Amino acid sequence: MRIEAAVLRAADAPYTIEPLDLADPGPGEVLVRIAGTGMCHTDLLGRAPGGRVAKPVVLGHEGAGVVEAVGPGVTAVAPGAHVVLSIDSCGGCANCRAALPGNCARMAALNMASVPPDGMPRVTDGGGAPVHSRWFGQSSFATHALGTARNVVPVADDAPLETLGPLGCGMQTGAGSVLVALGVRAGDTLAVFGTGAVGLAAVMAARIAGATTIVAVDLHESRLDLARELGATHTLNGAEGDLAARIRAISGGEGVQYSFDTTAVPSVVSAAVASLRTTGVCGLVGVGSEEYRLDPSLMLMGRTVKGIIEGDVVPQTFIPKLVELWRQGRFPYDRLIRTYPLADINRAEADALSGEVVKPVLIP
C-alpha cells in the first residue's frame, strides 16, 4: 500500500516527507494506521556518525494507532483495535520467558537492525529501492506502520490515541524503572538526573509510589519548575556545585536509597552513584558512547549500579496501567507533550534538542 513517511537519508540531512510503498502484513505482523507518534531521544541514533543506523531509514518507535489488518497467525488483536506500539521481542528466549522482554536475547536484531527477520524489505521508495524500516519493530514516523503480535498493546477505545504513543517507550521506561526495576516504595528517597520525558515520568512514578524525597536534577530551570509541579520535593541545577554533596545534605547526610540517570553523561553518572547511601541502587537508562569511571570505594560499600531497558516491564500489562493512572490524574504525562504535524518533523526535532519542548508528538 502507498503511505507517507519521514525518511532520513543521511545522518546530517533533514527528514524528507516521501511517498513509500509498504508491504502487506506477513506472518505475525500487524498493520497499524498511525494516529500519533512520539519523538524519543533514541531516534537520534539515526544521526550518529559511522553508519550505526543504515540509511535511508524510517525511524519512530513511540507509535499509537488503529489496527487495519493482521497477518497469518495473529490472534491477539483484530482490525479496529486501538493499540500502542512498544519494543519488539522474540517471546521464546530465557529473558522473554522471565517477563523481561526488554532484555530479549534478540533485542538488537529485532529493534535496531532495521531488517526484517526474513531479510525481505517491507518498505520501498517510488523507484522500488528498499528503505530500512522495522525500527523498534515499527518505524512509526509514517501514516502507517507494520508492528508485530509481540509489540502491539491493546488500549481502551476511549483513551486519547493521538498522544498515547510515548507510553510505549519513554514514559514506560521512566515509570517502569521506578515502580518495577528499582521497586521504589512508600517512604523511599530518590534522585532523578535529567528531567526530559523519561526523567519526569520517573518523578511522577515516584510520587505514585509514595517516595518522601524526590530530587530532580537538570540544567533547564523550566523543566525543574515542571518537575516540582509533577512531584519533585527538591530540584537542583546540575551546573551549580557538588551534586552528590547537595543530595546527601537533602537526605540527612547519608544519601538517597535510589538514583536514576537518564543522561549517560559520565560525570553525571558518577554523581548519581556518589549520591547513594550504602546499599543504594543507581539505575541507568541513558544511551551514550563514553566510558563511566566509578569510585571503587563507593562500590565496595554495598552500592549497586543497574542497567535498565524499558523499565523491566511487560508492555502489555504495564501500559494499560499507565493509562488508568492517567485517567485518575496521577500520571499526567500529557503535560509533557506538544503536537506537530508529521510534515514539521524537523522543527519538532530542533525544539526537542533545544529543550523548548519535552516530548514532541507527530500527527500524520
TrEMBL record:
The record's family statement is: Belongs to the zinc-containing alcohol dehydrogenase family.
Which Pfam families does the UniProt record give? ADH_N, ADH_zinc_N
The protein's UniProt keywords, in alphabetical order, are: Metal-binding, Oxidoreductase, Zinc
Q: What Gene3D superfamilies does this protein map onto? A: Medium-chain alcohol dehydrogenases, catalytic domain (3.90.180.10), NAD(P)-binding Rossmann-like Domain (3.40.50.720)
**Its domain of life?**
Bacteria
Species per Swiss-Prot/TrEMBL record: Actinomadura yumaensis
Q: Where is the Enoyl reductase (ER) domain?
A: 10-362
| UniProt-recorded name of the protein | NAD(P)-dependent alcohol dehydrogenase
Q: What InterPro entries would the database entry show? A: ADH-like_C (IPR013149), ADH-like_N (IPR013154), ADH_Zn_CS (IPR002328), ER (IPR020843), GroES-like_sf (IPR011032), NAD(P)-bd_dom_sf (IPR036291)
Required cofactor names: Zn(2+)
